[in-house]
Design goal:
globular, 36% strand, Immunoglobulin-like, 197 residues, single chain
Length: 197
Amino acid sequence: MKKRTVVALCTLVVAGFLLSATIRKSSSGAPASHTGAPGEKTCATSGCHDDTTPNIGSAKLSLEFGNHESTFVPGQTYPVKVKITDPKINRFGFQILALETQSLKDMGSFQITDSARTQIVSNLYELKNRKYVTYTFDGTDAVYEGCGEWIVNWTAPSNVKKGVTFYLAAVSGNDDMSDKGDKVYTVKYSFKPANQK
């Protein structure tokens, strides 16, 4: 009888822990088309993290392209690092998109390098030709206190006449099991082909 009681109690403890972890990290990625790129909303304007003004807060959001390159070689693959820092925060999210600077067409291709933390998504209803990279369920965890970071590869298109702009949105979450009180940030970074003046 005692053995059954101990087993049942252990089972309840493990189940409670798993349920708590599931509730604490309830998001499995930002819905597509929320980078703030032309024609898109952000999570601050679409009904989720919508009780604060974008880009107001203590976080710093950045994108590191390759080895700090400012241009790209058509057809070449580069690592793209997304980083957001916010003191004492342990829950973050992001979404990124690459568009041709003038035509706003989806440019190049993303490849996932860490499937535990990142995934590619697309919109089923509008802007269907755009591909986004966003976080996964486990990708909301800070890599250390106050820092969210994700790395993905991007292959530049082989024939691009104009530059490419990366549109990036990120959330610094207060981890209170709701969408309220979180901060949304947006930035964009533009790069030109290496042979373009």
